[in-house]
Design goal:
Elements: H1 2-15, H2 41-47, H3 52-60, E1 65-68, E2 72-73, E3 79-80, E4 83-88, E5 92-93, E6 97-100, H4 101-123, E7 127-134, E8 157-165, E9 170-172, H5 173-176, H6 182-195, E10 201-203, E11 215-218, E12 224-225
Parallel strand pairs: 5-7, 10-12
Antiparallel strand pairs: 1-4, 2-3, 4-6, 7-8, 8-9, 8-11, 10-11
Length: 226
Amino acid sequence: MAIALAALAAVALAGLGVFAVPGYLNPFAPLRIDDPVGILTRMKISRLEADGPQCRSVLNGSKVVHRALPDRSGSDGCGLSNGVDVERSEVAFNRGFVATCPLTVAWAMFETHVLQEAARQHLGQDVVRVVQLGTYACRNINHSAGGRRSQHATANAIDVSAFILADGRQISVLDDWEGGDPRRTAFLRAVRDGACRFFDVVLGPDYNSAHRDHFHFDMGPFRSCR
């Protein structure tokens, strides 16, 4: 609440001509992928969940190659709303995928502000390709017979298993989370920690054995970074 009031006060002072407020500090300014990450970033991403046109406008201003998809719903708790078909972003993927627009925006920001910075810092080069295991699957959490639907059931989650560097090396969650090369391990931990700035749920090998070989990122109703 204090943060929101401070932001509103800053906008009010800007309106009076006292000083200019950068867009990323203005709660009423649209989100931009290249904006510095600030106290309002997560709020702005969450607003896109209820505003499909605005979300697509943000995505259209990014480097994500995509096309909008029609909504489709089902009585089984699965379906797609505010979705896009993603071909690639600044990196290539092993295959294209369907995802919600807010998840794709969060990915674009994660890629810009976390993934490449971590790769350059720990490995000295960029990531050029990402191996993803899937986004949409009409199933429950952990493939269980009962319980709640997974965020994958509405294409609101993505699982990532490996990252390919510019020199062709592959950094794998399965092989390098506890591997012998400390640079690879540091990179993966930086990726996991940084992803929590944009996604609501981030799960990896420290969470349970089911995630020993991949990171799970989603934009669900809960918050967890493990």
